[in-house]
Design a protein that fits this description.
The structure holds three protein chains of three kinds.
Chain A: H1 3-13, H2 17-29, H3 34-54, H4 60-77, E1 90-96, H5 104-115, E2 118-122, H6 129-139, E3 143-147, H7 155-166, E4 174-178, H8 184-190, E5 194-196, H9 199-211
Parallel strand pairs in A: 1-2, 1-3, 3-4, 4-5
Chain B: H1 2-13, H2 19-29, H3 34-54, H4 60-84, E1 90-96, H5 104-115, E2 118-122, H6 129-139, E3 143-147, H7 155-166, E4 174-178, H8 184-190, E5 193-194, H9 198-212
Parallel strand pairs in B: 1-2, 1-3, 3-4, 4-5
Chain C: H1 18-35, E1 37-39, H2 42-50, E2 54-56, E3 59-61, H3 64-73, E4 78-80, E5 91-93, E6 99-100, E7 108-110, E8 117-119, H4 122-134, H5 155-163, E9 171-173, H6 178-192, H7 195-200, E10 204-208, E11 215-216, H8 218-230, E12 234-236, E13 239-242, H9 250-271, E14 277-279, E15 282-285, H10 298-314, E16 319-321, H11 332-348, E17 352-354, E18 358-359, E19 364-365, H12 367-385, H13 391-394, H14 396-402, H15 412-421, H16 433-438, H17 444-458, H18 466-483
Parallel strand pairs in C: 1-11, 6-17, 7-19, 9-10, 10-12, 12-14, 13-15, 16-17
Antiparallel strand pairs in C: 1-3, 2-3, 4-5, 7-8, 18-19
Helix pairs in contact in C: 1-9, 1-10, 3-9, 4-5, 5-6, 6-8, 6-18, 8-9, 9-10, 10-11, 11-12, 12-17
Classes of the chains: A alpha/beta, B alpha/beta, C alpha/beta.
Chain lengths: 213, 213, 487
């Protein structure tokens, strides 16, 4: 692996947002293939970040900075990448469900999914079911992710799923859920495809859902 | 008659150490026998206190007060008991063994035993084995109680037992020991009975008497 | 003459100087005046504008003089009354007095029979109230869960209806919104003997939780308006995560959460000047590995102590946090984290310390933890009472009286003080080895479980009046009618 790709990976690990952008530009200027920069630079760095987080050698703020650096580099590469997804892992529509104003957990998942190479459409918080169905029609995502922090607003996940079904969109997307009171049992009960017990696992679940097709 | 005995019982329960002597005198004047005062007045009061103490509803200072109250009456009725040939529950000879100046635990045991109806002779602290031997010959106790607070003075207990054996009076008495460092295992080793605390000591003394008769 | 003859400073934990407190207060005023908060409630914004706030869209900025006016009308000292008139169950809020109780709304509960974690059900509210009523160091009651086996909209109403007859200690109630707040209030009013009687002797406190950073949600604000209009003492408390929804520094999170809480203060005092108000809240750190709001962090105790001092500096009481843990069961971690936070809460004099019985970072309520913490609270309270120094306690004459080689076992001086100077444990085992051995060598957790089960099975709280029983049945019937068409 060339020195510049190594520097990009290091930049990702260090969460150097501007530095990574500059290095990606420099690598392109030096004639490196976009696909090579993505696979051997950005993704290598991000994989190491995931490993270190699990080993408790890195913490959430550092992981988020890394994800943000990754995202910046990817945006530069996107126009140059071949294929219908233009180097993207997939597309996710994400939102905190109706009645719930809690934002931070959902934002974490969004940022980490972007870091994992997804294009993320954020519907914000207090998103009613029809906002989700509209977004599915407009953005045609692979995955719909819903978040709730309250036992009282968890119900709205069920309502949203029902709305997606009634709009005839259920088989067009995978649905994943998360949030403090949510557990695997609840996810299964309302008929979601996946459940993430925290933000990092949320991004992993998203990847697994794509791989499973 | 039973009313005044009940007053004595209540005075013991409440630890009225000063008023109780007067009540006892009144009982005697009204014709109560010493035996009734002891067994129907004082002892039921002490039994109650002891049960409450074990249940954690009455505390050491209160038990001591009650025992003191009982003892104050005993002083009044003892001449009458001697006159009528009425015996106490038994006789206990107590002392803290040679080399040990700790007094309070042994005093607690003494008062508890008095409260249980024993006649108690207290040899005090730092008691030489020979002094125990002499007292056994002179006082003729049913039980010899030895106390030690230090691991270093525990050995004196064994020496005292040996001295009693050598003097040929070991068979006349039952021996029990206690104190913070003393254990059942140690008591077994030197061939005597053991009580883990002052309340248990009074019970143990009663048990030893019951078994010997 | 001894000038300080009766002065007793007690034992305390002070983490901020007067200068630092003023700096932080200035920070709070700046946040409220220059940054402002989003208030998601049309009527609340109108009320606040009327009080002198600047409103633009949802953003509300409150000038310092309006905040100070509200601080001036909010009382530092007041009483929350036991519903049955038992003075031992009254809560007197005021300087140097801390009170303890459980917390609201975890989804799970540790079953006291199976000791397994399961969803919280209605009968758990009965158990929690009964046990809290009996525990000597628990002063107020909260449910430790969200009832899962009734209509979702009625979880709070059923909770209050179930707990209220089972404890005469004041309840801190939560609710979803106006309707269930009203159910709760009608129950309390029925027992008090009417609205007017309730206002004279309020017998519960209402809990409202806005959002960090700087958002007053519709429900939280709606509940404050309800409480203010009905004379219910009110708590307005955010639950902020340092490094997540609030600054990572203790000073920063205290400023932000105080500003968040002050929005409720200004609103409540504008509607009803003099309404008893508790500043919030739960200040802890976001664990940067586990991604949870930790309930066992040392920073929680430190930041809560700082917030307590700031509230008292401003002349209002604080809703404290302690007795909680990140542990999943009744173990050494639960004991360590819970006891230390209880101790520091008592040392800093937080007025109402809640979450006694939170485990698993607030996801599971455990009355077993509450029972264990009751012991820690008793222990802490003894220390916080400090050492009283006067002629009687110096006891020089008593020492003379007893002299060398005597004993104090039943001296009059001992008799006068041994019950008040010493704290007697209910759970900590001080027996000798033989007794402990003969009793099955039970560790602390077994004794906790035994005591909990025994209290739950045998304690009989003083009942509500028969009229109240009837009123509760009618109120709940009407509530069921109200929600019967909602899924």
């Amino acid at each position: 692996m060339s020195q510049i790709l190594e520097q990009i990976a290091t930049g990702i690990i260090g969460g150097d947002i501007q530095g990574v952008e500059k290095l990606v530009q420099k690598a392109l200027d030096e004639g490196q293939e976009a696909e090579t920069i993505l696979q051997n630079g950005l993704i290598v760095g991000m994989a190491e970040v995931g490993k270190r987080f699990k080993a408790a050698q890195m913490f959430i703020p550092e992981v988020l900075r890394a994800a943000k650096s990754m995202h910046g580099g990817q945006e530069l590469l996107r126009p140059l990448l071949a294929g219908d997804k233009a180097g993207r892992a997939g597309k996710i529509v994400i939102g905190t469900v109706q009645g719930d104003l809690h934002d931070i957990g959902k934002n974490l998942v969004g940022m980490l999914c972007e870091g994992a190479g997804f294009e993320v459409v954020d519907l914000g918080f207090d998103a009613p079911p029809d906002k989700f169905t509209e977004a599915i029609k407009t953005h045609q995502p692979d995955i719909v992710a819903m978040s709730a922090l309250l036992t009282t607003t968890m119900r709205a996940m069920g309502y949203t799923l029902k709305a997606i079904e009634e709009a005839g969109l259920r088989d067009k997307v995978k649905v994943m859920v998360g949030g403090a009171p949510v557990d695997a049992e609840f996810a299964e009960r309302i008929g979601a495809d996946g459940y993430g017990h925290n933000a990092v696992s949320g991004a992993e679940v998203a990847r697994n859902l794509i791989e499973a097709g | 008659m039973s009313e005044i005995l009940q007053q004595i019982t209540t005075a013991v329960m409440q630890g009225k150490k000063d008023e109780i002597a007067q009540i006892a005198q009144q009982a005697i004047d009204e014709g109560s026998g010493a035996e009734d005062i002891l067994y129907k007045g004082l002892m039921p009061g002490m039994d109650y206190v002891s049960v409450e103490f074990k249940a954690g509803r009455v505390f050491v200072p209160e038990v001591m007060r009650s025992a003191r109250a009982m003892l104050n009456v005993m002083e009044v009725i003892k001449p009458l008991m001697v006159e009528k040939g009425i015996s106490m529950v038994g006789k206990v000879l107590l002392g803290t063994v040679k080399g040990d100046l700790h007094d309070i635990g042994k005093n607690l045991v003494g008062m508890m035993c008095e409260g249980a109806g024993f006649e108690v002779r207290n040899l005090g602290i730092n008691v030489e084995p020979e002094k125990f031997v002499e007292a056994v010959k002179e006082f003729e106790p049913d039980i010899v109680g030895m106390s030690a607070l230090l691991t270093t003075t525990m050995r004196s207990m064994g020496d005292t037992v040996k001295a009693l054996e050598e003097a040929g009076v070991r068979d006349r008495v039952q021996i029990m020991i206690g104190g913070a460092p003393v254990s059942q295992a140690f008591a077994d080793k030197i061939g005597v009975a053991y009580a883990p605390d002052a309340a248990a000591a009074a019970d143990k003394a009663k048990e030893l008497i019951a078994n010997s008769r | 003459m001894r000038a300080n003859y009766r002065v007793n400073s007690g034992v305390r934990f002070e983490v901020l100087s007067k200068d630092q407190l003023q700096e932080m207060f200035d920070g709070v005023l700046h946040v409220m005046d220059k940054i402002g908060l989003d208030v998601h409630h049309d009527r609340a914004r109108e009320i606040l504008a009327g009080a002198g706030a600047r409103v633009e869209g949802k953003r509300v900025q409150i000038p310092p003089h309006v905040v100070k006016r509200s601080l001036a009308t909010a009382p530092r000292s007041f009483t929350i009354y036991a519903r049955d008139g038992n003075p031992a169950h009254d809560i007197h809020i005021g300087p140097g007095r801390s009170h303890f109780g459980p917390g609201p709304t975890p989804p799970n509960f540790i079953d006291i029979e199976t000791l397994e974690r399961r969803p919280y059900v209605r009968d758990d509210a009965r158990i929690v109230a009964t046990v809290c009523d009996a525990l000597p160091n628990i002063d107020f009651c909260e449910s430790l869960g969200t009832i899962s086996d009734v209509h979702t909209d009625l979880a709070a109403s059923y909770e209050f209806a179930t707990m209220f007859p089972k404890t005469s200690k004041p309840i801190v109630a939560w609710s979803y919104g106006w309707d269930d707040s009203n159910d709760i209030h009608q129950i309390a009013v029925a027992e008090a003997g009417g609205q007017e009687a309730f206002e004279k002797r309020p017998n519960y406190v209402h809990y409202c939780e806005p959002l960090s950073p700087l958002v007053s949600t519709f429900e939280a604000v709606d509940k404050v308006i309800f409480a203010a209009e009905h004379g219910v003492p009110v708590i307005f408390t955010t639950c902020a995560l340092a490094g997540g929804t609030a600054p990572v520094t203790p000073a920063g999170i205290i400023i932000q959460t105080t500003a968040e809480s002050f929005m409720g203060l200004v609103l409540s005092q504008t509607i009803r000047p003099g309404l008893p108000f508790f500043m919030g809240g739960v200040l802890s750190v976001m664990d940067m590995s586990a991604m949870i709001l930790t309930y066992g962090a040392p920073e929680l105790s430190l930041m809560m102590a700082g917030a307590t001092e700031l509230a008292h500096y401003c002349g209002i009481p604080l809703w404290q946090t302690g007795g909680c843990t990140d542990s999943k069961c009744l173990d050494e971690q639960a004991s360590l984290e819970g006891s230390l936070s209880v101790f520091f809460s008592a040392l800093s004099g937080g007025d109402l310390c809640h979450d006694v019985g939170y485990t698993e970072s607030g996801m599971t309520g455990s009355i077993l933890q509450t029972v264990m913490m009751d012991e820690a609270i008793g222990y802490s309270r003894r220390i916080c009472r400090g050492i009283e120094v006067n002629e009687e306690t110096l006891a020089v004459d008593v020492i003379q009286d007893v002299g060398p080689d005597g004993h104090y076992l039943y001296h009059d001086h001992t008799m006068r003080h041994f019950k008040t100077e010493f704290w007697y444990p209910n759970l900590c085992d001080r027996r000798n080895f033989e007794e402990w051995d003969a009793d099955g060598q039970k560790p602390m957790r077994d004794r906790v479980v035994e005591r909990t089960r025994e209290i739950a099975a045998t304690h009989e709280p003083s009942p509500v009046r028969p009229e109240t029983e009837k009123a509760i049945a009618e109120i709940m019937e009407a509530a069921e009618e109200r929600v019967k068409d909602k899924s």
